[in-house]
UniProtKB/TrEMBL annotation, chains A, B, C, D:
It comes from the Bacteria. Belongs to the carbohydrate kinase PfkB family. This is 5-dehydro-2-deoxygluconokinase. HAMAP family: IolC. Keywords: ATP-binding, Kinase, Nucleotide-binding, Transferase. Catalyzes the phosphorylation of 5-dehydro-2-deoxy-D-gluconate (2-deoxy-5-keto-D-gluconate or DKG) to 6-phospho-5-dehydro-2-deoxy-D-gluconate (DKGP). Residues 14-317 form the Carbohydrate kinase PfkB domain. GO terms for molecular function: 5-dehydro-2-deoxygluconokinase activity; ATP binding. One of its GO terms (biological process) is inositol catabolic process. The keyword Transcription does not apply. It comes from Paenibacillus abyssi. Pathway: Polyol metabolism; myo-inositol degradation into acetyl-CoA; acetyl-CoA from myo-inositol: step 5/7. Its EC number is 2.7.1.92.
Length: 336, 336, 336, 336
């Protein structure tokens, strides 16, 4: 059964809007960052990672974003192009903004943290006028990411993109991706997350992210059913609520909660798990697979990424994901 | 025929949220403000004026807003109370904000302008947490005003109020009241005006205000029908588009455009015309009158205000409006 | 004996730099401002008032400042011109700044307060490049005022003016005029007040203002002698410390503290006392009078202003001051 | 002959105030940064580098500064301690500020650039109240750096430190270190550089930096003599003006310009040359050496640093500098 209907005959499968930045991953790991001496540079940012993932999986992709007019910005631009992502709507800032940074600290596979540089970040300078209606008009899916709502004018650019996506019938996916450090207050965050989510066909987030959005509401039990039902009253067809180790559940309008099995992995770090899961899952849904099969495919993609040093650069092809699943089924891969 | 259904049995008829400020009206008029030596102080701000108007017309009213912790703020508070407006949700700022000011310049009845002080204005400091759900739950109508969307946190407070009004079934009225000086850009303005308007049952504005909201859309002829149809696709039941001297048209979902006759007035200044019209018109609609009769009542109320020195203080009672209409019909009043 | 030597043969006697704003004085007095309904408009701002005072006393004056591009700014400009003050260095802002306002509240002759509007004030937008070296090169005296140090770029403009005054040998007078509301912190205030005061020949302020400047120093007894001695180590020749009702003392490098008798007045309000005192005193010093006689002249000028409704507009001519002194000596004037 | 007299019997030789940050040096060099994939982390910031240099040379040092409450801040703190620099006045920020970053790009030994992250930098949050008078009271030398003047409250903290240094007789050294990106305007920069320089005993800068400070003055020939003479009218005893490849000249009050020979080096990059030169030169002057010998020592120290990958970490000991000079004199080192 198909829960979401994608428009036919579009020249693009997938467009994302939002954060484009640089990850600086610790080379010497299993220690606090104070003792890390060298870092390796990768393209990062949740919507960028998902788009790279979708492109590796063979879909036709494009990105709507803004990069700094510096060496970091030019690196991002060329990396997207090398990954077959259309950059015709990747705009260069000319106000002196910088590229957002994320330094990773990997103390152990389960104790990872990030040191962010988000002041004056170029990606948050995208304006509504820079969003190309024509691009959104020819995609099947638009993915928005919560971090792009954190500041003006990027916030208004996202609402502009949502307006175009609604107008042209693209399926809208909202990856909540809530990062407190760029927001002024929880009230402000909640206000704009809710306004955006009302317009979305699929919403993916953790239980904590949905709790944040419900701060003015009545859901004292933090019930997934209450949460999902709220969004089905607006535009949502699928609401995925992630419960960390307990796995994710995809809720649909028929009241069903769909779960899928997971795979073992030799975990290096947890960064990138959500982005690779999102890419794998959305790929499956767009192929017309069942939600369960799509979720399994997402899980396997995530296993590949968390076994690697990077997020973006480790995004797998469909063959790599299928191969991983096969090897898991054969018992060749066990948890670390 | 009734175009809007108001909820029954609420303890309040009308609640407005937004700007509360001070008008300083020139005493020596018919000259540039440079030559005006004395000014008289009145309560001002479009939603405040409308609420005063509704209260004078006999409705049960309340206001949601924020005032400075100074003499101007205390004057506003006591004036609202003297006008029988509930002030339980009028919050006092404690950050050092000031009361917004509007100095009026009246060079001639048709050449009026305003000098605004809106930096660090207390009314724009209202937060979402300060908006009382319980108050909105017991009103028939919530009126929002565009100027309250101009800045955070007032902007988020308005969206919070809209959420509560939707939840509790209040009829929502949007008085566009667009004032460029408090906004950063036309794109930002357009984004939030549209997000708010989607949720409203009645929208009142000038043709130019609707044009501003359509900057990313296709309405090259500035067609009222195209404009109204857009909002009927969301929540609107009545869209009033004002064409200055050519009068206002109230569009309804059945495709009709309603017009009403106007009345003569001895015009002192044009300030306050829109606010008194809105109060008179809404009063009529809430009485179950036809749109035409409601619009006439609004026009007569406006005539009374523009014949006076102040806006808020000149808001008429129902008897005064009826008396004005009667005198006009008898030919006792002619245009200045 | 002459404590300060003024340069000969300059085409201007007196130039001030800094605040230029509007006073809105309550017409209905002896009540809280909440109950005041009308206000009268005057030019205000301490350095502006002093300059008006100096011009009324017959000196050749000019002003360095910035006005808003609106009706209030144009009123200020024309008022200065009508008072024979050169306005060739009064610049008009084009960034949308507003004119600073001061609403006065006169509850009783001894209970007066001010409600200030200083956000986005045009006078604080003056830049160093706008200060005309040529103008300062041809004045005997430059007066600076503490409020102009409160924000960039006005702060840097004052230091630029000080540099020019030093270079061209003008006598520099510092009227401390400390107003907490425009400053971010007491540390910041103290830093710039001290840097400016080091370069000044005459410093006038209250005991509390000098205390604020000494927050990182050792003067636990708040000793005037310690305070004055500090500044004599820099450039100062005369330090006037005001002790409210106990009168002012002018300290000189020879270790003397000069006091003068005061005059009775029928006090309406206390605003403007300091500005008229400064004008009268400086006038006397520039005439070569003793400090004592200069201080008496300042006191009499102050009496005239505090007996009137306005500050700027009440600044007396030399004849008026002399007449006041004569009448006091005849016993024709007694305290209210 | 001794141009500067250092106070006797202080428990510290050298204290610096200002920028403390992180250098991220490209590991793969001789290419644009776009193609650099890994970076190595070092402590950076001109005054930090000079202090590390002074400590390596055997002096008793301390630092006045502010670090972020994160892994980068803690790395800086421990690095200073490991280098025997007293950190009792290194304060930790608690406002969410980040550590300033400098990514280096080394295209060739003569084509080097820096990509700076200075938004919300912790070092610029130092307040006047955090500067310990007691620490400055017991040092022979206080070094200030221009970048710390770029923003409040760090700017006021520097002026506070200057006040304490004057009060307690420390020799004050000003390393101009002008970096345009943290300043709002050239006028603002010039204003504060001049106010600080007036109070300094030694001033070191490039010809371009002195030109920036003279933007409101008459030195159309960019004459070093005019520049030096200006500062001798204030507090300066030695003014060092750097002319890039043409070498540096140390001007003294007797009108002499002192030059020194330079040494060859196998240049990796030019970063750090000025900081190591300053440390070596100041060390010499504090030993009572001639200016010429001190300048040579500084040059040799600079040669060692520019032959290495890092700035701070390459700062030499006195033995290393002497050894370098000996080897140069033996002809064992030639230019790259």
């Amino acid at each position: 059964m198909s829960y979401v209907q994608f428009p036919d005959e579009r020249s693009l499968d997938f467009v994302a809007i939002g954060r484009l930045c640089i990850d600086l991953n610790a080379n010497e790991i299993h220690r606090p960052m104070e003792e890390t001496m060298t870092f390796t540079k990768y393209v990062g940012g949740s919507p960028a990672n998902i788009t790279i993932g979708m492109s590796r999986l063979g879909l036709k992709t494009s990105f709507i974003g803004k990069i700094a007019d510096d060496q970091m910005g030019r690196f991002i631009h060329s990396y997207l192009q090398r990954n077959n992502i259309d950059t015709s709507n990747v705009v260069t800032d000319h106000t002196g903004a910088v590229t957002g940074l994320a330094f990773t600290e990997i103390k152990s596979p389960t104790d990872c943290s990030i040191l962010m540089y988000r002041d004056n970040a170029a990606d948050l300078k995208l304006t509504p006028e820079e969003v190309q209606e024509e691009l959104i008009a020819r995609t099947k899916v638009l993915l928005i990411s919560g971090t792009a709502l954190a500041e003006s004018p990027s916030r208004e650019a996202v609402f502009q993109a949502l307006y175009y996506a609604k107008k042209h019938g693209a399926v809208i996916v909202f990856d909540l991706d809530y990062r407190p450090y760029t927001w002024k207050s929880a009230e402000e965050t909640s206000a704009y997350y809710n306004l955006a989510a009302e317009k979305c066909d699929m919403i993916l987030g953790t239980r904590e992210e949905f709790d944040m959005m419900e701060r003015f509401e009545q859901n004292p039990e933090h019930s997934d059913q209450v949460t999902a039902a709220k969004w089905f009253d607006y535009s949502a067809k699928i609401v995925i609520i992630k419960h960390g180790k307990d796995g994710s559940i995809a809720y649909t309008r028929d009241g069903t909660g769909h779960k899928a099995k997971s795979y073992p992995a030799k975990v290096v770090k947890t960064f990138g798990a959500g982005d690779s899961y999102a890419a794998g899952f959305l790929y499956g849904v767009m192929q017309g697979w069942t939600l369960e099969k799509s979720m399994e495919f997402g899980s396997a993609a995530a296993c590949i990424v968390i076994s690697s040093h990077s997020c973006s650069d480790a995004m797998p092809t469909a063959d790599q994901v299928n191969d991983y699943i096969t090897r898991c089924e054969r018992g060749e891969i066990t948890a670390s």
